[in-house]
Amino acid sequence: MPRVLIVDDHDLFRDGIASLLRARGYEVVGEASDGIEAVARAGELKPELILMDIRMPNMDGLEATRLIKADVPEAKVVMLTVSDEEEDLFEAIKSGASGYLLKNLKADIFFELIAGVASGEAPISPRMAARMLQEFSRNPNVSKPGEVQYQSLTARETEVLRLVAAGQGNREIAAELFITESTVKYHLRKILDKLHLKNRAQVIAYAARRGPGPGRGAE
Prior knowledge:
Blueprint: E1 3-7, H1 11-23, E2 27-32, H2 35-45, E3 49-52, H3 61-71, E4 76-81, H4 86-94, E5 99-102, H5 107-114, H6 126-138, H7 147-151, H8 155-165, H9 170-177, H10 181-195, H11 200-210
Parallel strand pairs: 1-2, 1-3, 3-4, 4-5
Helix pairs in contact: 2-3, 6-11, 8-10, 8-11, 9-10
């Protein structure tokens, strides 16, 4: 279980999330009430998972995420917010967030989504994932990635990209492609490098922007 830092400006919400996490076996190493405190606590505690609100006083969660990822790049930041604005979703992903969850999730779904963060999966609320795809389908030519980087992917990397974009985890991808999870992680690292992306959430956003394209790259 990853060590968790909870960042939210509402004491009652932090207490509730902390209780739920501890009941499921997570170690809550600290809490913060705004972005400034979050940056300091992250540098001090070196948590593996940070649950980050967006709307907070003094410094919002987006700016805090950028600073934390620069100082503690190994920390996984998952936004946990009431904001269902696409702008916040995309800005969070660009800032280095590994996921984006809405606070109205049921507890079981919340824990199911964050369970794979440690292994590199990107939890995104189904509602936000659907809106992200709808946004790009309405504007298919806006910020559409170029073909040079995409064509540099091998056939196997293209398959892995497709399955990641479909929301499959490493274990599911390994089973479908008859390869090991370690091999899936290797292909993901190559995809991130070739497409100049930071994490799995950005891979999903990339695939959504690009949409269906021409054939696969070289073997």
